[in-house]
Amino acid sequence: MLTKDKKILIVGLGLMGGSYAQALKRQGFTVDAITRSQGSIDYALERGWIDWGSTTVDPVELGTCDIVIFALYPNVLLRWLEDNQQYLKDGALLTDVTGIKGPVVYKVQAMLRPALEFVGAHPMAGREVYGVRNADCSIFQGANYIVTPTESNTPAAVEATEELGRLLGFARISRLSPERHDEMIGFLSQLTHCIAVVLMTCRDVEHLSAYTGDSFRDLTRIARINDEMWSELFLLNRDKLLEQIDLFEAQMQILRKAIAQGDSELLRSLMRLSTSKRALFDK
Amino acid sequence: MLTKDKKILIVGLGLMGGSYAQALKRQGFTVDAITRSQGSIDYALERGWIDWGSTTVDPVELGTCDIVIFALYPNVLLRWLEDNQQYLKDGALLTDVTGIKGPVVYKVQAMLRPALEFVGAHPMAGREVYGVRNADCSIFQGANYIVTPTESNTPAAVEATEELGRLLGFARISRLSPERHDEMIGFLSQLTHCIAVVLMTCRDVEHLSAYTGDSFRDLTRIARINDEMWSELFLLNRDKLLEQIDLFEAQMQILRKAIAQGDSELLRSLMRLSTSKRALFDK
Fold first, then answer.
1. What residues are paired with A119 via a beta bridge?
2. Contact B256 A264 (CB under 8 A)
3. pTM reported for the whole predicted model
């Protein structure tokens, strides 16, 4: 379905948009880009990741694109569509890379004119650095990609979005409802970022690097965090994230109590359970 | 000081004891080993990691060793010394690899006869697997090694223990009091293992592996945990570990409140603080 004569527009040429461009150009597509900084466009043009780029919206160019990928912050994405959806080609497929789905997907679908279709997608890959200069489509290798269709989507558009994930190089493509996605991501991604931030800020750690083992380094790698993006994602998913924090906290209190009471048997059974559950991830 | 004519005895030939043997043999020392399983001895002998091994204590052999390294669970270490310290050579230097220091170091030093000296050490390296068959002294490369001297130690013995860390290949050798070590390790290592166990057990995660990104995998790598060893280490360090859990929990509640109240500024300032603190570890 995603034949190589399709023209792809990427809106937002940062770490993720740039990595998409690199991967899709390598697959033989025509790739255009709109982004704020001329430097980002020049960088991607020099590397042959895009065929055309602009810092402003060109209505004529918009009308030539079959697939539009938004690699923008959620609030910027909504504003962009308000301003520019009128220029997009009838039948164009729109998708995104946003880390939160419910508050984005339904709003976008509600505001789109009928001739356009939006299918939400979440590439579960990233780096602790950002900007197109850090783009690298090898981050998709072995990673997960989640598509979040709703009742308003057509099977053809959902399948094309999944196909896009495969073309980008993702190892596993899944479908989840936006609600279920946000619950999962609240647990798997947002809670883990909360933990990393809390670990890094809950006490003086200035002189700790001489004493750290791998475990602390592993748990705080993601404590280097884009505060603008993640605070927005946290607050968009507030209720689901708070639920996940509370689940975590309740279990931490059970573990704490086992330690305080010297309940070696409970401690060991929790450790055996975590060991067997974690082993499934390493299969 | 640790000239190659010194004879080293390793008591407990598991992951850590085996890795010590491999590294020290490579440095040209004579290395003996006492451990429970003949299979472990055969494995190490075949690889040339030890010169001699036995599943039982040989009083004559004990009397020939200059340095004795205990790679045992804390309670086993204390019992072993009760039974066998009489056979050790006058002037022998004793050290260990135990992950907790206060409850071990002072007890050992109090029970030792005056002709023996014990200097506690903690190699901050490990793997999620165990046994001599997983031993690999490359885990020491780039890792930290902490020596925990007390007032009863001589400068010469402390320096020899530090020298041992360098010979094993550790990148950074530090000195901490046993109390300070246990506080640091309660935070850096034990709390992080608690978090991993809690993350892995606080909810059903059976079908999550299709949706995980790197962050969840990073934070739960250490959820595969040796329940016998870690429950013992947790309980030996109970008060200090509980303090660290409480510090973490208090900060998590601050972050939770910022999310619940939609306090984007507080969220972002915590994220910027964690980012700048974590950056120091990547220098």
1. A95
2. no
3. 0.86
